[in-house]
Known about the structure:
Blueprint: E1 4-8, E2 18-25, E3 37-39, E4 47-49, E5 56-58, E6 66-68, E7 82-84, E8 90-96, H1 101-106, H2 119-123, H3 130-144, E9 150-155, E10 160-166, E11 170-175, E12 181-184, H4 195-199, E13 205-207, H5 211-217, H6 232-236, H7 243-246, H8 248-258, E14 282-283, H9 291-298, E15 330-338, E16 345-350, E17 359-362, H10 370-373, H11 384-397, H12 399-429, H13 434-468
Antiparallel strand pairs: 1-2, 1-12, 2-15, 3-6, 4-5, 7-8, 8-9, 9-10, 10-11, 11-13, 12-14, 15-16, 16-17
Helix pairs in contact: 11-13, 12-13
Amino acid sequence: MPCTTILVGKDATYDGSTLMARNDDSGAGKFTVKKYVLITPEQQPRHYESVTSHIQLELPDDPMSYTCCPNVEPGTGYKSEAGINSANVAMSATETITSNPRVLGADPLVPGGLGEEDFITVILPYIKSARDGVLYTGRLLEKYGTYEMSGIGYSDADEIWYLETIGGHHWMARRVPDNAYAVIPNQLGIDYFDFEDAAGEQKNCLCSADLEEFVKNNHLDLTMDPGDAFDPRAAFGSHADSDHSYNTPRAWWMERYFNPNTFVWDGPDADFRPDSDDIPWSLVPEKKITVEDIKYVLAGHYQGTPYDPYMHHGDKSMAGAFRTIGINRTAFLGVLQMKHNGTSVEWLSFAANEFNALIPFYQHITATPAYVGDTTMDVNTNSFYWTSRLIAAMADAVDRETASIIERYQNRPMNEAHAILDACDPKIAAAADEETRVKLCMEANQKLADMAEAASQEALSQVLYTLSNKMKNAFSRSDA
């Protein structure tokens, strides 16, 4: 799927949690319907067969429960995308990435292998840490292969790891520095890799056992001087013209937001431009990063630049030149906030991020609220997904007139969500047993869902009223 990912280490966040977030975007011309559910050990399949590649796996008999956001449409496969398991480990899969003919010729993709449809289902219920997730995935890739190039994120309360597939069976992974963030916009992104660490201490780098040999045997190392650091982007990635309109501008805009003074981002003397191939994979931000920051950048449409498709003033000749981060076909945004004290949450929004609201949900649960979990293919306003889609489609048509409505709609639920979390976190953390913790989380989640539903219904009503007044058959003379 064409997505955008941001990963934030615990020392770079406002509260010391790790933050892993991804827009799950539907393919061109599609709008994938999603829901948010809990999969219990009883519901987890023991024999797994995918729709996309028809791979069949016998899965372990000791799965943990986990949340996820699967497809609603029958016959399209699981594609569970993101979630948190009962060991307090999160996973986001996948960020579709790019490669080059040298890699894919040396290690071709495997049509009957694993891919986006499968990864959450066959990995998340069985991993006990972020690092464990990387190694578990690596073993599966080496055994079964993959049919597409993918980036996969794993996080727990201490670490975030990011894995990128290389051809059909190879892979590399880097630990996100605790004091930094990383951005990935549908492009192989890791810009530094230490083979010595991967073969030894494995502090920050992991990879398939024969990756260094694979690079040498297939002449993939493009560095000019043998003493230069290995460049994985040059070896494994792409440098197509389409990257400069579809991928690199997203990294440029996100890092421009988090590090406005670290580099020059605009003008003829810019250190990095939207079409730069050397935009860093990770940076230390100029200030600590919040959930609100992540929502803002993953709703980004190049605000404050000449490339904003919503620009209403000035020179519009470059407006819409680049693929926006927040796009009309976003299915959902998941922000996985991992904490030590049993109060980890997944913040969720559905449809286009420019116009939706982000709501958190606790993970120690036995089911998800109906407003997010009972979504069907039928359009209706009893669903957070469908209400968000309706608000976005209508507000986009009258974006100037509804700007204040959308701003209030996004801010008020966020304010109330933080108040609910602040009140519930201490109680959940201090719960004497799992039963009490689950009860508190379930009650809080229902309160959050009810709040989201009320706010969404109000926003939908206001946006509908505004758009109705703009109909072509409107006439100002009263008929009363």
